[in-house]
Amino acid sequence: MSENRPLILVTNDDSIYSKGIKSLVEAVSSLGEVIVVAPDSPQSGMGHAVTIHGILRINEEKIFGDIKAYTTSGTPVDCVKLAISKVLPRKPDLLVSGINHGSNSSINVIYSGTMSAAVEGAVEGIPSVGFSLLDFSADADFRASMKIAHDVAKQILEDKGLPEGICLNVNIPKGSPEEIKGVKICRQAKAKWEENFDNRIDPMGKPYFWMLGEFKNYDKGEDSDEFALSHQFISIVPVHYDLTAYHAISHLQQWTL
Predict the structure, then answer these.
(1) Chain centroid offset of residue 109 CA
(2) What confidence tens digit (pLDDT) does each residue in 4-59 have?
(3) How far, in Å, CA of 4 to CA of 8, rounded?
(4) CA distance 90 to 211
(5) Roughly what angle, to the nearest 10 degrees, separates helices 19-28 and 143-155?
(6) φ, ψ at 71 (rounded to 5°)
(7) Spatial distance between the Cα atoms of 40 and 76, rounded to a whole number of angstroms
(8) How much is the pTM?
């Protein structure tokens, strides 16, 4: 491990065997020393979950050539914590997570294992970015995603950095590089999932529920991530882990308690 080259931690939530993480490793490998620590099975929708009551295992893998790679039995956040505590020789200069198969724009950021890994990096004071491609296909075209991943990582490592406590949520529209119109710095759109639960019966005759839902975008603003993505622009949203609603403090201070 060279002390002169940046140390880059790569993780994800789709597992170490996904095409997305292989694309991300390829995109950033020329920028520094890369070490991969990722789940051994898909962990989508795990949010910021950590393993408390179960054991964690970690195994070295040989799937990225000379690049050191490890699988864990835990969540994406577990991967970041284990990497920092047990795997890496020092704190990384950059954490990149993804490239996720599917959108993590708008409200999806709070459910996303991809983005929770990036948020955990920000908590640890590491410049961190989550990348997501709006394509669930196992054979998705990651060329545009790889280019923006390389460019963003390069910007951060070349002393541009990120503000303290901030990570980036980068979403890329489905399509070839030629179909991408550009990049927009955005805010998170006001949108949500409207779920319903389908009642079903298993083969043993016992009832169960299957969650279904539809994504609803209520935001008409042209500065949101959903607007950018719908017009074939890459969206970049700065995200922070401080969930305090500062604008509501003065209102609550008027209560009589």
Answers:
(1) 8
(2) 899 999 999 999 999 999 999 999 999 999 999 999 998 888 899 999 999 999 99
(3) 13
(4) 42
(5) 40
(6) -105, 150
(7) 10
(8) 0.93
